Amino acid sequence: MRARVYTLVALLAASLVLVSLARGQSPVGIVRPASERGLGLRELGSQLFAGNCSTCHGIAGRGVYPPNAQQGTGNVRGLGPPLVGVGAQATDFYLRTGYMPLERADEQPSRHRVLFTEHEIRALVAYVASLHGGPPIPHPVPSAGRLSEGLQVFTQNCAGCHQVVAQGGVVTGAKVPSLTPATTTQIAEAVRIGPYLMPQFSAKQISPRELDSLIAYVKRSQHPDDRGGWGIGNIGPVPEGMVTWLIAAVALVATCMAIGERAKR
Amino acid sequence: MLRKAVTFLDERSGAAPLLKKGLRYVFPDHWSFLLGEVALYAFIVLVGTGIYLTLFFEPSLAKTTYHGVYAPLQGARMSEAYRSVVDISFTHKAGLVIRQTHHWAANVFVAAIVMHVMRIFFTGAFRRPRELTWLVGVVMLFAALLEGYLGYSMVDDLLSGMGLAIGYGVATSIPFIGGNAALGIWGAPYPGAHTFESRLYIAHVLIFPVIIGGLIGLHLALVAARHHTQFKTSAKQTERRLHGVPSFPGQLPRSLGLLFAVAAVLFALGGLVQINPIWQWGPYKTALATNGAQPDWYLGWLIGALRLMPGFDVTVGSYTVVPNPFWGGILFPTIVLVALLFWPWVEKRLTGDRAWHNLLDRPRDSPRRTAFGVAFFFWVVIVFAAGTLDRSTVFFGLSYNLQVWIFRGLVFVGPPVVYVITRRFCVALQRAEEVEAVREAAEAEVEAAAVTS
Amino acid sequence: MSRLPKWLIALLTLALWRRGKAEGSEQEDGDGRIVPEGSADRRAESWVIALLFAAALCAAGFVVVYAADGLGNRTQLFGIALAVCFALIAVALIIVARHLIVTEHLEEDYPEPGGDPEEQEAVAEVIRESGSRFTRKKLLLAAGGTAAGAVSAAAAAPVLSLGPLLDTSRLQETPWHRGRGLVDDSGRALLADDIETETFYTAYPEGATEEEKDQIGAPLVVVRLDPSALRLPPERARWAPGGILAFSKICTHASCAVALYRKPLYAPTEPRPALVCPCHYSTFDPATGGQVIFGPAGRPLPQLPLTVDGGLLRAGGPFSAGVGPGWWGVRRKRSI
């Protein structure tokens, strides 16, 4: 019996170490101009872009492709898509979710502390938007959408990866983020951009009205109707099994021990 | 008054001698002997709550449009079965607490059986003359698994539909007869005929409960016929004579107390911890799927086995002989079932011990059995854990593909390692006891010498 | 196996016989009592009484919650009322067991090892001797066996009505044939020009009813790749007009819906496009015609040839292979 416990503890410890190794935050700070005052918005954006983005996204956002990978600030190996035509929409999304800047060019962007100030984000958005144009920051109106339509659009297009209550999941080769922290604007942006491995849904596929409904549903799923009590994550059987064993089975074994004889040695 | 009632009964049934014997039936006392009772009481809660649910559940796949109180489903097309369960959860007073208690009771029922089986295994309680009791118990465990699967499958929500799809894939994968068997069970190619829902329903609310109930009766009758086993904790307990508490008055209040404790835990969970919120999953359609879909915990080892198998079908030319789900969905559980069923006879063959046993082993007393049991359990648990890798990817961020490969390795490497470690551990415990006994004897001798001198 | 019935009979007779034999090891006390007398414990008694009244109160609370209107969190209140009620009764019973019941330990003999040989012999004898008038036992047994078998077969025959058990041809059916149009969930025809790269579509056969759309052969997943990225087998060269590919949406492993499509935003650092099933994470490569690149699926995803007819997407023929999960009649390639 005890041998099994030790094995379990060892396994757990090993996995925790691996996890902590896998989860380093970007050590690279933000490179800022000596003084941000007195610079125009676009000018500040351009300087910030040169210091923090161009290693991967190239001069003036032209992108960097494999044979030309370059060493940049903080020893980042630069490699990244062009920002031609991505516009304010994508820039706003990637900066406000903390997806950018990335520590390594080949890692999956994920939600982090936002490293730029509000003013800096606006500057970068203005700069990238000025490069080649592109879609503006969207302004969805979820209150105009219908929840039930949202659920339908979500199960059709999103639940396969994001899980039906938007708690996130996995696809071979990547993690799928939970949508719990996502804001209305970010959801609208992500649907149109398709960050990382996510498909990109144009207005032809998900109309602006459907998008409003979709956002209404996702916002609702952030506070689902847990009339059954403690929601234990809204992901179904795995936490239910844990409750069965860690709460119910433990409580009942304890009851048995209270009622029955324990070892007398 | 009391005497009159007894007389009335005895005159008409001749039950007095039997009753007296029953009241004074001897229960050896140890907390681990109560685990089987926990399972029994969970079953009682299951039957009670289940009967209530049948009064409201509509086993029909006919399509309807939802116009109830839950906004996200407004206007959605769904089956009557699913709609009726949403209504049980939303509009029938006390419907949700009963439904959730029923589901938790199912989870706890199987958990209690598993703990009970482990207690029986590691103490050698299955040995002659109790092999039949063991056999019936193992069959009940597997009947309970199927019963649970039927229960959450007939709701027709997104998760249950995906579970049925997998069940269909596993059924068709049986070599030579799979396609026919699946057509027979489903009545038509997936998602099957409308009658399939009726079949699920009658199996879940009648056939399997009756089977399980009957097996419980047989199990208890066999236990009573050969009496309980006991630990040797005092000189009074021997292979020939058992020592314990009479069922009345000693055992009755404890057992009843345990029954109410089980009910308390189940209703507490049923009221306070949400389980299977089917309104959040939405209705099922063949073309829909959600990420992180899992079966209830007690089938986790099957989804783990299905996920761990590398991708190949056994084919001869263009003829399919063994489709992939067979390995994880049929062969693996069959191996586990057969190993459990025949273990008493396998052990007899291995040890040559065919004697009657009324006294229990402690796990350390039989290092080889304990080591085999722990290794076997570890093997199943590894596969079980593999079924949750998608969720652990979400929580810990390790690559899913990498984890699958690690677990594929562990399935082969883990059990032998665990076997060796457990066996050594048991032997070390035995040694420690021997040393202790020698030391005690020596001390007693010294003391005796001190007294005489 | 042949021992099993004998065992059952032996066990049954023994259990019945024992009943007659009576006599445990019950000794009566000096004062003629069976259960020895114990001393009273008024404190424990008071506790039990109080606990039972409290339990009654909780049960009444359940009724109140049931009757009261306009309560929020009713499920939780129900659960708490019942759980506390049962817990109080449980505690009361445990106090009864611990403090109010005479603690007595009885001893009893286990059944004799080997059971009761005389009785076992008697059972066998009764059965053996009852057959003395039969002369042709083997023939009789054969006749009895035949009758039993035939009756079982007759009883089992209606099982065939459960489904097309013997006729597996329906497992091969799909609604797709040359010329059938592709429509989306709401029934609108899919236009080739509207199909974009970087996303996926779920398509159904034109004119299918709600029920037909749920058939395993109906749903398709449609994606568009850059035609230069396709690595289709040569015989499928014309199956993907403009790089538009259609596959059965049902996983070839265990029939879940292949509801995940991953596609890289920036190919050099990200995994290549793939269709993934969320049940066991089988991963299929659309560019090579649905080949398995990870996970347990044993067959590629069946591909449906497409044609463009007046801008509309239509099936150019049946699937490349049998759809749905593997079974003995499924073929990796269409046998035409």
Give the secondary structure arrangement, pairings included:
The complex is a heterotrimer of chains A (265), B (453) and C (336).
Chain A: H1 2-22, H2 41-52, H3 54-57, E1 70-71, E2 77-78, H4 87-96, H5 118-132, H6 147-157, H7 159-162, E3 169-171, E4 174-176, H8 184-193, H9 208-222, H10 237-259
Antiparallel strand pairs in A: 1-2, 3-4
Helix pairs in contact in A: 2-5, 4-5, 4-8, 6-9, 8-9
Chain B: H1 2-13, H2 16-23, E1 26-27, H3 35-54, E2 63-65, E3 77-79, H4 80-90, H5 95-123, H6 131-153, H7 158-172, H8 178-186, H9 195-226, E4 241-246, H10 247-272, H11 278-281, H12 300-308, E5 314-316, E6 319-322, H13 325-351, H14 367-386, H15 389-396, H16 400-452
Antiparallel strand pairs in B: 1-4, 2-3, 5-6
Chain C: H1 3-21, H2 42-67, H3 74-100, E1 106-109, H4 117-129, H5 137-156, E2 182-183, E3 200-205, H6 210-213, E4 220-224, E5 244-248, E6 260-262, E7 274-276, E8 283-285, E9 291-294, E10 303-304, E11 306-309, E12 312-315
Antiparallel strand pairs in C: 2-3, 3-4, 4-5, 5-10, 6-7, 7-8, 8-9, 11-12
Helix pairs in contact in C: 2-3
